[in-house]
Amino acid sequence: MNLLARHSSHFSLVRALLFCALLLFCLVPPARSRSNHSLVKSHAGVTVSAATREGRLAIFDDAWTTIRERYYDSRFNGVDWEEIRVEFRSQAAAARGETDLYAVLRRMLARLNDPHTRVYLPGEYPDPQRQQFITAGVSLREIAGEAVVAAIERESEAARAGVRAGDEVVSVDGELARVILARRMEDEKTASTAVSSRSRAASLLLDGARDSFVSVCFRSPDGAEKSVILRRMLRERPAAMDARRAGKFTVIRFNSFTPEIAAGIARAMKGSLRNARGVVLDLRDNGGGEAEAMTDIASLFLPAGKELGTFITRDGRTHLEARTRAAMLSAADAIELFSAPVVILIGARTASAAEVFTAAMREHNRAVVIGENTCGCVLGIRRRHTLPDNGSLEISEVDYRTARGARLEGAGVSPDELITITRRDLRAG
Considering the entire predicted model, what is its pTM? Predict the structure, then answer.
């Protein structure tokens, strides 16, 4: 029998908590609209130019060699890296300038089937200190091959035009959305899992430059269509946490693992949420964060000393072994362990540290997990590499195994209770 159901009264409490979580999953989709088109900063000090054949080869050789020396898997996911050099070096030499060269580099990296290892043009690298993104004010998800509105920003053109969650995107700038989505999914086929490929493809459907406009035709469930001109705007996506009571239970939603959020959750659990009979942790829009903050939050629910998994380098050495602790790094107070039942909500956008946290909680029989399969995106990037022309290269250098030895990369965390979101669910929310 599950640890959460040792006796009948406890089982009744868990059933009530699960019912609360199921309602939240179906009726409260993640509300933040976002795109993966990030604001970028410029880099100075360019010493090599992609305008010359010699410059292009220098950039290519530097990228290829850096991956050969630092990639987390010395077998390169089954790819012959020497043959890759032969195949793509001539293409780099023949490239027509910078943009063409970086397209060659991206095709080369795609052979690794690893979305974490990626290259950025000079000036394209996202600023990690400013969580900014460009959005048309509409968040989309893929359902049965269609792009469907999951959430809308308040006061956006779409909201003012009456677009609602559950509406289908028919076309974008006159092109059928189904066709664009299929093309995007083909471009994203190297994503860690099929679910992450579909999620990213949908999120990029309305992608474009800041302050540009896009014409979108929406169709409601009753068949009515409307065309709306949307402006792509710059938005900030700060780390955020919302904790509230839902009857006897606590619902905590947070989009990142940061020291501030870890401390905020600890304060909430000691304060207004202290006597909750159970907690729902909503990680559906949580893309990860800092390992130490993840450990702090896990330490609120698991006794000190519990293993959360191991991060491993290409030579098999342990880069980091995460364990829960008796005192938080992000708060001065001692930890007060929360012992009531826990339910975790997950989805395709649940990634990285959020997946590690969820897997650890379940392996220690501390949580019931419901929702959809997670991203399967847990490889670690230790440091960015600057290319000779001031472009940027990110390389997966660290793999992860759970305490029981399971590998999450490419697989993700599967829920105990699978909930498939439909257009009707989104409409009802």
Answer: 0.78
